[in-house]
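can u do me a favor
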């Protein structure tokens, strides 16, 4: 028996006023017979566009996996899981990805979720080991399908589709229009939705000319000319990312870096601090250009320009999302030539000669050594920090509860007193480590 999912109730849970046109069209198409290929820009709300109709197809009477969602990165898989959990349905969801303990995932799968999300390599591994039943998987979503192909997951995706023989509905999403869909996907009478040409008038692109070939000082001046809003700086290589981050740190500018060379726990912690406002400046490779849950980014800075236009588009897609405004800055040295894909030449943004370095963020992140697997939830942490830590509600920010650890954003000027108040105190009768998150 199919459940009755109320779209209005889901939007209320997510605190979203209404769906956009792409989401409405996607829900209508997915409700029909046939497969669906959705092409839409990064940040347009594709996740909700397929999760709502997917949830409507779930049955409370089926106790095994009913929908499988494959994503090219751990961060995107975790983001999809979080959105589904926030929709307020009664269906269980689990997420599997490389770097996460296989033993925990196997235990989670012993009581199968209705919706299983994961990276192709890890899901293929679970199927190969027989860790979950595939007979009732009727819906398959290949999210950011073009990126999965780019990352070399063709073999794993082909294996998964061969093994999951009960699929009735295939949903492919992409931010890129020109993708060739391999035969192994086995599309059946697909409905094609192309929203790739949608332009966002809320995005402004400006150019900053650097007097020096080494653009570090120009970058520092640019950051100092802005209003301390959430800023994402893109470099083309990992070593450049670390060099830029190290330079900003040497100038007492709070920032962090993000690239594929970081271990998964480090990547999660960096993104949590960026999301909760403990750090307003993130220096990254193109890993941060797609599939990350980092909303409300005010500024994109291209310290290096990518070689291809689609990478430039995906980077810019991190700002001016869902009707918000945003600005992209391109830093070029005097002898540097803009690539052909930037046309027309952006308006030059002139830096003020006098500037103050950015102020420290208003928030700082608290590390708590307990999480979901320790039976500690978000409300436990809120109650503890308000009652024992003596915080006001407006002094407590975003809280992230992971399997065995949690993070809470605290007003920076309250941290010293808070740490004194919670020293040697217990959360749910458990003594846990509490300190400033590195």
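np, heres the sequence
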């Amino acid at each position: 028996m199919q459940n009755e999912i109320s779209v209005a109730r889901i939007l209320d849970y997510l605190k979203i006023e209404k769906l956009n046109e792409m989401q409405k069209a996607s829900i209508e198409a997915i409700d029909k017979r046939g497969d669906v290929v959705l092409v839409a820009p990064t940040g347009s709300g594709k996740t909700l566009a397929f999760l709502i109709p997917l949830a409507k197809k779930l049955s409370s009477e089926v106790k095994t996996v009913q929908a499988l969602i494959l994503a090219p990165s751990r961060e995107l898989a975790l983001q999809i899981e979080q959105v589904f959990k926030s929709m307020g349905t009664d269906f269980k969801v689990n997420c599997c990805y490389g770097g996460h303990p296989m033993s925990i995932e196997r235990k989670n799968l012993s009581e199968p979720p209705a919706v299983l999300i994961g990276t192709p390599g890890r899901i293929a591994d679970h199927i190969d080991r027989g860790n979950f039943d595939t007979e009732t998987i009727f819906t398959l979503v290949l999210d950011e399908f073009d990126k999965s192909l780019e990352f070399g997951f063709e073999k794993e995706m082909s294996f998964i589709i061969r093994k999951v023989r009960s699929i009735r509905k295939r949903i492919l999403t992409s931010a890129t229009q020109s993708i060739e869909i391999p035969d192994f996907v086995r599309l059946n009478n697909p409905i094609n939705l192309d929203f790739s040409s949608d332009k966002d008038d809320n995005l402004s692109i400006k150019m900053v000319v650097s007097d020096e070939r080494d653009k570090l000082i120009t970058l520092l001046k640019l950051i100092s000319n802005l209003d301390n809003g959430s800023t994402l700086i893109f470099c083309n290589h990992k070593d450049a990312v670390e060099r830029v981050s190290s330079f900003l740190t040497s100038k007492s500018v709070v920032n962090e870096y993000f690239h594929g060379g970081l271990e998964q726990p480090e990547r999660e912690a960096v993104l949590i601090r960026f999301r909760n406002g403990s750090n307003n400046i993130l220096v990254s490779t193109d890993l941060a250009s797609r599939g990350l849950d980092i909303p409300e980014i005010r500024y994109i800075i291209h310290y290096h320009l990518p070689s291809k236009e689609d990478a430039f588009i995906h980077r810019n897609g991190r700002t001016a999302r869902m009707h918000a405004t945003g600005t992209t800055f391109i830093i070029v040295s005097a002898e540097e030539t803009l690539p052909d894909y930037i046309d027309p030449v952006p308006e030059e943004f002139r830096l003020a000669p006098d500037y103050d370095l950015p102020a420290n963020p208003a928030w700082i992140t608290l590390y708590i050594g307990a999480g979901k697997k320790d039976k500690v939830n978000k409300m436990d942490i809120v109650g503890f920090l308000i009652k024992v830590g003596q915080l006001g509600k407006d002094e407590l920010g975003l809280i992230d509860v992971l399997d065995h650890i949690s993070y809470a954003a605290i007003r920076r000027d309250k941290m010293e007193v808070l740490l004194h108040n919670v020293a040697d105190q217990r959360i749910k009768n458990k003594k846990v480590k509490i300190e400033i998150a590195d």
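The CA atoms of residues 131 and 399 lie 32 Å apart. hope that helps!!
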